[in-house]
Design goal:
With 532 residues, the protein is an alpha+beta fold. The chain contains 18 helices and 14 strands. Helix 11 packs across helix 13 and helix 11 crosses helix 14.
């Protein structure tokens, strides 16, 4: 443990923990709607769930059948997951015979033309979202866009940043917003250094349906007639078989300072990419993508973690970061846990809280290109070979066994978990740490190993396993339907969202071509700050 981390922990312990108990946690869970035979649902987004465009908690991601559940932000992850459970229970009260797919990797998918892109209505904003997804289909293929994950949104109490700033030399010369943004960027750098551990501990996608690859070249092994896998993989979702694209391969916005991060994304949304230029933005008079640039919009950048700021009406993410700084971080690399009905457990959330607070408080020097390449390689090794006996990772100038490196990292995180428990007056974070240490000692306890064990014991079919788990989860939720008060609350949200979409569509609006032009012109961020 570094001297800086020791000092910061002592400082926070001396402040009676008030700042530690603040901050917010939110979860976005993606899940495909499937029919009882594990085929992608061909039905439209259920009207009973409300408008996918305007509903604050139930929307769609890429495909019409890819639901996204968004929890309110809460101070305690247990409350967040309870809210996520409530969304699932309500959704099942409206889904009829359909199921929510229990896996990150997709169910049985139809041909590309038959995967319906999410529809958001005829307003300019709704069409913008739809055309953006048309562009994703051109650039990445529809199958890849049907992959699901868990996004973990995390913020620290702003009082915590003020406590640290008061005792850090030179911090008083910067604004509170600048200091907070710097600390979140430092958190992200440490996340880059250590996120391979999350892939080992929580990766749950070592297999996929053979129909997913659509003829792409691969080095996977065959587990059964319909299933491909890698024997030691933890998360094929996060490998080059999941989210990947040649245009983005050269895009690596470093997080050494906010200005450089914003500048890199601003360049990407304004820099033409020749293969996309050949496709054009329109075909036969119909919009097929928002632009021919490396990124249509900044959210197209496939990062494992992002700095975020809640945006205002008509504002773009880059503009929000420029004008008001970083407000929270979004962790995007977590697989859906197929053994948990809502896709994530409370103990997993407790560990993530300790892990992320460690990343926030530990020293975090800038990352140069060579170090960044090492972190990328560690991550890639872990997602494809994480449970391989004797696997080593880069630790600066040396190669170290994954288990040893993981145990050393857990030992560094342990005092942070202890401080969180002291603030709460219990031991829930320490218990979560113990559960993760057990996985390092026995790889068979990891979700990826458990998935493979289940498949090998039941015929080896990914589809059959996914359907079994989906049915179990459906029974879990259907046995606990929403109360009258809960149903009334969500019915109200659904009705309000439909009314809001209707109002948007009936309101006067400019031509869609002009709307897209105005949107694209709004992405420039004018910031005179420099990286130190």
């Amino acid at each position: 443990m570094s001297n800086l981390l020791t000092r910061r922990l002592a400082l926070l312990a001396d402040r009676q923990h008030h700042a530690l108990l603040g901050g917010l946690r939110g979860i976005e869970r993606e899940t495909l709607r499937v029919d009882p035979q594990a085929h992608l649902a061909a039905t439209a987004h259920p009207v009973a769930l409300g408008s996918a465009l305007t509903h604050p908690q139930i929307t769609t991601d890429y495909a019409e059948a890819l639901l996204e559940f968004i929890t309110p932000a809460e101070a305690d992850i247990a409350t967040t997951i309870d809210k996520l459970d409530g969304i699932h229970r309500y959704a099942y009260s409206k889904l009829g015979g359909e199921l929510l797919w229990s896996q990150s990797m997709p169910c049985l998918l139809p041909g590309e033309p038959d995967i319906t892109i999410a529809w958001y209505g005829k307003s300019n904003l709704g069409m913008l979202k739809h055309v953006y997804r048309r562009g994703l289909a051109l650039r990445y293929g529809k199958a890849m866009q049907c992959i699901a994950g868990i996004h973990y949104n995390y913020s620290l109490d702003e009082r915590l940043w003020r406590v640290l700033a008061e005792h850090e030399e030179g911090a008083g010369q910067r604004s509170a917003m600048a200091y907070q943004s710097e600390r979140y960027l430092a958190t992200i750098r440490n996340f880059r250094r250590h996120s391979w551990l999350l892939m080992y501990l929580f990766g749950a996608s070592p297999v996929l349906s053979s129909c997913f690859l659509r003829g792409r070249q691969h080095n996977l092994e065959r587990l059964s007639d319909d299933t491909l896998y890698l024997p030691y993989a933890t998360s094929l979702r996060m490998s080059d078989l999941g989210y990947q694209n040649d245009a983005q391969s050269g895009l690596s916005p470093h997080e050494n300072c906010l200005d450089s991060y914003v500048a890199a994304l601003t360049k990407a949304v304004n820099q033409p990419y020749e293969p996309y230029a050949k496709l054009g933005t329109k075909q036969d008079g119909e919009w097929v993508q928002l632009s021919t640039n490396v990124l249509q919009i900044e959210n197209e950048y496939y990062a494992t973690i992002r700095p975020k700021r809640v945006i205002r009406t008509g504002e773009r993410p880059i503009q929000a970061l420029c004008s008001r700084g970083v407000q929270y971080i979004e962790v995007r690399c977590m697989d859906v846990d197929p053994f948990e009905p809502v896709g994530i457990s409370v103990p997993t959330g407790r560990f993530l809280d300790a892990f992320l607070l460690f990343c926030a408080l530990e020293e975090s020097a800038p990352i140069d290109e060579a170090e960044g390449a090492r972190h990328t390689d560690n991550f890639a090794r872990t997602v494809k070979e994480g449970r391989r006996p004797g696997l080593t990772l880069h630790d600066g100038a040396r190669e170290v066994g994954l288990r040893q490196l993981g145990e050393e990292l857990l030992a560094r995180i342990a005092p942070v978990a202890a401080l969180l428990d002291a603030a709460r007056g219990d031991a829930v974070h320490a218990e979560a740490m113990t559960a993760q240490a057990a996985k390092l000692a026995d790889p068979g306890l990891t979700p990826s190993a458990r998935v493979l064990a289940e498949l090998r014991g039941n015929g080896g079919s990914f589809t059959a396993f996914g359907l079994r788990q989906s049915e179990r989860h459906a029974a879990h939720f259907r046995a606990r339907p929403p109360t009258a008060a809960e149903a009334g609350y969500f019915d109200g949200l659904a009705a309000a969202s439909l009314a809001e979409q209707d109002e948007m569509e009936r309101a006067p609006h400019i031509d869609f071509d002009d709307y897209v032009a105005a949107y694209r012109a709004s992405n420039l961020c004018h910031n005179s700050g420099d990286c130190d």
